[in-house]
Design a protein that fits this description.
- By secondary structure, this protein is α+β, with helices and mostly antiparallel strands.
- Helix content is 37%, strand content 19%.
- It is built from four helices and four strands; from the N terminus they run αββαααββ.
- The strands form two sheets. A two-stranded antiparallel ribbon has the order 1-4. A two-stranded antiparallel sheet has the order 2-3.
- α3 runs antiparallel to α4.
- It is flat and about 45 Å long.
- The model has no long low-confidence stretch (mean pLDDT 83).
């Protein structure tokens, strides 16, 4: 995670600033990309997030999709923990890039 860069205290407990990088080529069957913090992924698996977004995608409501994911993540955090981690979510609908080959580079 980028916030670990220069974090000498975190380095002492195993936090590293070296990213893991992978690349995926998207195709016409890919409908959207979700970029989210660990506050989302801690309790929401990929398929659950996709299922939350899908009805909003069908209505072309990207703001509703993001709000629904964040609300569900927040609900699960408050049910399972005494604190809530940061919850950040970005959703990009891919039909805005017709006839283009897109590449997604994942850095974690």
């Amino acid at each position: 995670m980028t916030r670990a860069m220069g974090d000498l205290a975190g380095a002492k407990v195993g936090v590293i600033s070296v990213p893991e990088i992978s690349s995926v080529t998207l195709n016409k069957d890919d409908k959207f990309i979700v970029i989210a913090s660990d506050g989302v992924w801690e309790y929401l698996p990929n398929q659950t997030v996709a299922s939350i977004i899908w009805p909003y995608y069908q209505k072309r409501n990207v703001e509703g999709a993001v709000e629904a994911v964040v609300e569900e993540a927040h609900k699960l955090w408050t049910q399972k923990e005494n604190v809530v981690d940061d919850i950040t979510c970005i959703v990009v609908y891919l039909e805005q890039f017709p006839n283009q080959q897109l590449s997604l580079i994942h850095i974690s």
